[in-house]
Amino acid sequence: MLLFRFLFKDAFRSLTSPTGRVFLGLLLRYGGRPRFQSTEVTFGRYRFTVPDALSFVWQYKEIFTDESYYFEPKRPNPIILDCGANIGMSVTYFREKFPKARIVTFEADPAIGAILRKNLTDNRVAEIEVINKAVWTDDHGVSFASEAADSSSIFSDKPKTLIPSVRLRDYLLREPYVDLLKIDIEGAETAVLEDCRDALSRVDRLFVEFHSYIGHPQTLGTVVRILEENGFRYYVDTNQHRKRPPFVDFQYSGNAVMDLQLNIHAWRI
Fold first, then answer.
1. Helix 89-97 crosses helix 110-122 at what angle (to 10 degrees)?
2. CA–CA separation, 227 vs 254, rounded Å?
């Protein structure tokens, strides 16, 4: 049994929890579907439209099985700002866990934003403020490439268009206290955090998905300094692994545009 756990620890861990078993079922059911084709999926009492079935499966694992965004709020009606809501998996999780929360969600991609609204409406995930604009350092718009699923970015090498934006700092300054700020904005996080430097004191819990794009400066040090300046403790992890040693494999998981992706959880004691 110990050897089985060592060799197959992820599968074993999944089998030991109800949401883990759901994940394995979703992987078997949808993992082999053609990539980047619109699909109707079901999980629990929900039925979602998804632009890419495999991305959906791994979103379910990260959000519902691993509970990467779980936290224990200090008040019954927390305020959650979800930057990069994608198709609505994280928002649905937050509404399940925190039924009295005020949730403001942002999604840059116009097409994904339409799917987000549809999924929330169809599944009666209620009282969510949806802002279909990019989180950025100003409200003048930003050049953005839509790549479907969950990889759209300002750093994409695909053709870009100017899309509407909002300044996250303005939203933070409107709130005296933000229980959770989630930032998953595909490479724009460093610029946004720099712009919010003097407003992060209002945030209690902060999640950042950090991205490092090949051919662009690595800015992890900047992000860490901003967290430390604002009194955060932090934990850094990744679910991305290289097939060969890092000194000879400068891309993770065969990714053609990024060489590093990290999950950063930051909190105040």
1. 40
2. 30
Q: What is the pTM of this model?
A: 0.92
Token output for 27: 């992987």
CATH number, span 71-267 = 3.40.50.150
Contacts of residue 191, defined as CB under 8 A and 6 or more positions apart, other chains included, come to: 136, 137
3-state helix/strand/coil string of 155-189: CCCCCCEEECEEEHHHHHHHCCCEEEEEECCCCCH
Burial of 29 (0-12, 13-18, 19+ CB in 10 A): middle
Amino acid at 203: V
Instruction: Judge whether 235 and 265 are in contact, CB under 8 Å.
Output: yes
pLDDT in tens, 127-148: 999 999 999 999 999 998 876 6
DSSP 136-151: ESSSS-EEEB--STT-
Closest C-alpha among 63, 58, 66 to residue 17 = 66
Q: Cβ(87)–Cβ(120) under 8 Å? A: no
Task: Tell whether the model's pLDDT for residue 228 goes beyond 80.
Answer: yes
CATH 3.40.50.150 boundaries in the chain: 71-267
First to last CA, the chain: 38
